[in-house]
Amino acid sequence: MKSSKELMLASDPYRAMGNELFLERQHAKTELHAYNCLAPAKVRERNQILKKLLGSTGSRFFIEPPFHCDYGYNIQLGENFYANYNCTILDGAKVSIGDNVMFGPNVNLYTAGHPIHFEPRNEGWEYALPIIIGANVWVGGNTVINPGITIGENTVIGSGSVITKDIPANVIAVGNPCRVLRPITDEDKKYYYKNRPF
Question: pTM here?
Fold first, then answer.
C-alpha cells in the first residue's frame, strides 16, 4: 500500500493526516520561521536556509520575506528568480520555475486541491497537481495560480489574475479567470508601459 506521501507525489488522491507529511510540514514551517525572522541584511543566511529547504535553486535568486511553502522539496527555482513580499507556494506537487522569472507581491501558487463534493472533502481527501512556469515570465502582484497550470515562456501575467487554465508562451494575459489579451511582439521592445518609450 502506498503511503500518503507517495500518493501525493503521484498526484493521486491522498489524506495529509499522516505523521510523515505532518512532520515534513512542521520542518518547513520551522525553517521558514527562521528565514522570515532574520534581519534584512542577512541575505546570505536566508539564501542558505532556502538552498537546504527547496528542491533546487539557481546560483542567483532572491525571495523577499515573508515567504511560505508546505514542504519546500517540491520547488525548483531557475536561475535569477525573484519573488516580492508574501509569496506562498503550496507544493504538494512539483513546482518548476524557469530562469529569469519575476513574481510581484502576494503571488500564490496552489498545487493543492480538494474534492468538490463535501463528503470526501470532509474525510480529508485532497490532491496535488504540478505547476510549471516557463523562462522569462513576469507574474504581477496578487495573482493566484491554481493546480495543474502551465505558463509558457516569455509571458506576462497582469496583476490580480486568477489562473484556472494553461497560458501559452509569448502573450499578455490578465483577469479572473485569466485570459490572453494579445501576443507579445518585437514592437513591445520599444515600450516599458503602454506607449511610454524607454
Answer: 0.95
Does 192 fall in a domain?
A: no
The catalytic position among 27, 33, 68, 114 is: 114
Beta bridge partners of 171: 183
Domain membership flag for residue 49: yes
Domain with residue 51: its CATH number is 2.160.10.10
Enclosing domain of residue 153: 4-187
Which residues make Cβ contacts (< 8 Å) with residue 66, sequence separation at least 6? 32, 36, 85, 86
Is 33 part of the annotated catalytic residue set?
A: no
Domain count for the chain: 1
pLDDT by residue, tens only, the chain of 198 residues: 899 999 999 999 999 888 999 999 999 999 999 999 999 999 999 999 999 999 999 999 999 999 999 999 999 999 999 999 999 999 999 999 999 999 999 999 999 999 999 999 999 999 999 999 999 999 999 999 999 999 999 999 999 999 999 999 999 999 999 999 999 999 998 887 777 766
Residues 6+ apart with CB under 8 A from 187: none
Residue 193 within a domain = no
Is residue 97 in some structural domain? yes
Scanning the structure block, which residue is given the C-alpha cell 472533502? 121
d(CA 21, CA 91): 12
